[in-house]
Amino acid sequence: MLSGPAQKLPYPGRVSHELELVPGGLARAIEELPLVDHHAHGASARDLSRKAFEELITESDRPIPEWMTPFDSQVGFAILRHCAPVLGLDPHCTPEEYLARRARLGVDEVNRLLLGASGIGHFLVETGYRGEEVLGPSGMAEAAGVPADEVVRLEAVAEQVAADGCAAEAFAARFEEALWERTRTARGLKTIAAYRHGLDFDPARPAAEEVAEAAGRWFAEGGRLADPVLLRHLIWTGIDRGLPLQFHIGFGDPDVDLRRSDPLLLRGLIELAEPAGVPLLLLHCYPYQRHAGFLAHAYPNVFFDVGLGVTFTGARSVALVAESLEAAPFAKILFSSDAWGPAELHHLGALLWRRAMARVLGEFVTEGEWSVGQAMRVAAMVGGENARRVYGLGV
Hints:
This is Amidohydrolase-related domain-containing protein. Residues 144-393 form the Amidohydrolase-related domain. One of its GO terms (molecular function) is hydrolase activity. It comes from Nonomuraea polychroma. Helix 8 crosses helix 11 (228-241). By secondary structure, the protein is an alpha/beta fold. A 7-stranded parallel beta sheet has the order 1-2-3-4-5-6-7. Helix 12 links the parallel strand 5 and strand 6 (280-284). Helices cover 47% and strands 9% of the residues. The protein has a single domain, classed as Metal-dependent hydrolases (TIM Barrel), CATH 3.20.20.140.
């Protein structure tokens, strides 16, 4: 499968386009990898209007000006290039043609086609954001025909504890109890501290008195959890829980201060948490992918991906994937899509990652730096084997 001369492959399936000359069989083997998407959200559970669809293919939360469309972007062009054929249309169709076809098929069939064509073999689904609008793990498993497990958001658990009511002095114990119960079958945890405060927080575990005082302030003021003392408490309780802990890093909607979401700000926490042996997973990381690579290189408890950045950089995603492979040990890099809503984003996350890996690794082989066998082994590690090890998914 991996021997023979260089081939130019037409890709009628998932990759669905011609690549550069790639050493014999490598691109085909990457196309056929059953990926583990270690951080995704559910696909849309309802049909989407044009306005709703366009709002979900941008990370901006602002109204879209009448004089523009998010289809005129890297991700928009990628949808029309790579998702259109999966729905039975020609590549590079118009947005109007694409959305009309999507509406005729209906959400269930669109999800089935795009999730199935992604070749993702296992989803880890984070359920803490607008979960009522998208499929949960069981719905994703049914739509895609593959296993799906849950990743639990720490802040969502804490906010439910507050909503249920408790004294400030009881918050720490109630949160711990709720987290253990909520994660009985979960594979991992996630924090959005980067959104709620920024990563420039004191890394030390807060004292019980600090937590009670901060909980009292939060209960009195109301609103979402954004107090850095409480966020630290959630993180350290998550580390005590022992499940792999994911951190949002870098690119996202305007709610995140990009300046304060650099993973280098987590260095103190990483070092304090190192003795616990809990995997800390840095999600997305764009434009800080090289910073994340350094942390994964330096610390045994750090792993990372470039998931969301791959989808939103579209035709430029090859460069992003190449940079992710620079400094980090290959056993520390994972694949994710971070898709939420349109199944197009799950599909593109996988397709663009496969294409980028084939091009980048193929160049290494062509230049004589790597063997084909080494390239295929690294693709398999990043595409799924690392996630199966980190999250205990088995083979």
